[in-house]
């Protein structure tokens, strides 16, 4: 019995010695010492015919320390080396977007510096990828949102985010973007033009059928920044359409910025004839006009019957418009002016549902609409 007790005690001492030895360095042993590498890149070494505004993306093999990924460690050498660097933690992807066009038909080098490290501090092996750009033509002016030339190919657009170096080609280029609003929100178009040549540029908020909510245009110059247009949207999916009638390219940053909505009235959403609010003879009160907002109303008329619409608003400044529409929703015209009140009449030439629209160029005007049917 005494012998077995002594042996057990000896084994226990040996076990404690092992435990003590394994923890003597204060840790469980060595951690991650494997450096990360590149698992995917959207250009290849020696590639030619690269877009003049190519956004280069690099996916890493493991989670990275995003503080080591910036314009000093991810860059392009050659003409026009400056750009925007972003890192998406969810996909482990870094992107480089040039802020000007690359030089046409010129070799450039995309560089990943040795300071780039994973979350454990292991640094990547420095790497250089050489590529040659294509000629200065529309085929090589496509940005990373292409193809988005038609509504069916509209590029997904995230609100409150700058999209850098968006291009428009000469010869009436057109780009479509789709965005979703989950609550009533004001959306404002912001532009920063890196290159423009004072030619016509237009942007539209539209539905999928290209029925526009508002359209605005101007002639931008390089260096312009513009709060271009704003509109209050109710929850739903909408489109931004951009067109350019120019003989030169446009390079700009683009953002859809959200803000506090205009206070709409109880008749919304009535921005189009197919959403028109049915009314009868009488007075509509408590309406609110928002910037560029269109309010449609419908009314049954007999052939030869006349409708008179009087719009009274306060304060008295601001531009007003009244338009009448036939049963086929074609525009029958109407006045525009700053007269307060503004009155217009229309005589029906057929029996059916007719429409009229009131519109203002002034934020947050409260107005009354008086409708008389003769």
The name CATH uses for the topology of the largest domain is Jelly Rolls
> Structural class of the secondary elements?
mainly beta
Order of helices and strands: HEEEEEEEEEEEEEEEEEEEEEEEEEEE
Total count of strands: 27
Please give the largest β-sheet. Answer: 6 strands, mixed
CA radius of gyration:
32 Å
CATH class membership of the largest domain = Mainly Beta
Please indicate the count of domains. 3
- CATH arch. level architecture of the largest domain: Sandwich
Write the layout of secondary structure elements.
Elements: H1 2-22, E1 38-41, E2 47-50, E3 56-60, E4 74-77, E5 83-88, E6 93-98, E7 107-112, E8 127-133, E9 155-156, E10 163-168, E11 173-181, E12 185-195, E13 200-206, E14 212-218, E15 225-233, E16 236-245, E17 250-259, E18 277-278, E19 282-289, E20 294-301, E21 306-314, E22 320-325, E23 331-333, E24 336-337, E25 342-347, E26 352-360, E27 365-373
Provide a descriptive summary of the structure in words.
- With 374 residues, this protein is mainly beta.
- The chain is built from 1 helix and 27 strands.
- A hairpin with a 4-residue loop joins strand 5 and strand 6.
Short overview:
The protein is mainly beta and 374 residues long.
Task: Please supply descriptive tags for the structure shown above.
mainly beta, Immunoglobulin-like, Jelly Rolls, 3 domains, disordered N terminus
């Amino acid at each position: 019995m005494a012998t077995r007790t002594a042996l057990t005690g000896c084994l226990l001492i040996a076990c404690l010695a092992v435990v003590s030895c394994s923890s003597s360095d204060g840790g469980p042993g060595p951690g991650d010492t494997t450096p990360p590498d590149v698992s995917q890149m959207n250009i290849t070494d020696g590639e030619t015919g690269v877009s003049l505004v190519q956004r280069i993306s690099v996916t890493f093999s493991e989670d990275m320390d995003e503080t080591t990924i910036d314009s000093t460690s991810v860059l392009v050498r050659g003409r026009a080396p400056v750009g925007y660097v972003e890192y998406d933690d969810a996909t482990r992807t870094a992107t480089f977007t040039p802020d000007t066009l690359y030089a046409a038909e010129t070799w450039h080098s995309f560089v990943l510096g040795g300071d780039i490290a994973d979350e454990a501090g292991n640094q990547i092996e420095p790497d250089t990828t050489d590529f040659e750009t294509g000629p200065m033509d529309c085929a090589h002016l496509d940005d990373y949102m292409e193809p988005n030339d038609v509504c069916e190919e509209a590029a997904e657009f995230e609100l409150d985010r700058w999209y850098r170096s968006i291009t428009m080609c000469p010869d009436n280029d057109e780009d479509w973007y789709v965005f979703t609003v989950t609550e009533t929100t004001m959306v404002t178009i912001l532009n920063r033009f890196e290159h423009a040549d004072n030619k016509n540029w237009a942007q539209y908020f539209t539905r999928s059928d290209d029925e526009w909510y508002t359209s605005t245009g101007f002639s931008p110059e390089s260096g312009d920044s513009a709060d271009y247009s704003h509109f209050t949207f109710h929850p739903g999916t909408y489109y931004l359409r951009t067109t350019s009638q120019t003989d030169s390219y446009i390079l700009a940053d683009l953002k859809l910025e959200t803000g506090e909505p205009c206070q709409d009235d109880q008749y919304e959403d009535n921005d189009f004839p197919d959403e028109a609010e049915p009314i009868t003879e009488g007075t509509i009160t408590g309406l609110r006009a928002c910037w560029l907002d269109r309010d449609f109303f419908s009314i049954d008329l007999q052939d030869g019957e006349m409708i008179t619409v009087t719009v009274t608003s306060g304060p008295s400044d601001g531009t007003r418009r009244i338009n009448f529409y036939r049963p086929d929703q074609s525009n029958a015209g109407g006045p525009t002016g700053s007269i307060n009140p503004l009155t217009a009449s229309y005589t029906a030439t057929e029996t059916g549902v007719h429409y009229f629209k009131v519109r203002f160029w002034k934020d947050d005007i409260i107005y009354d609409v008086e409708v008389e049917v003769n």
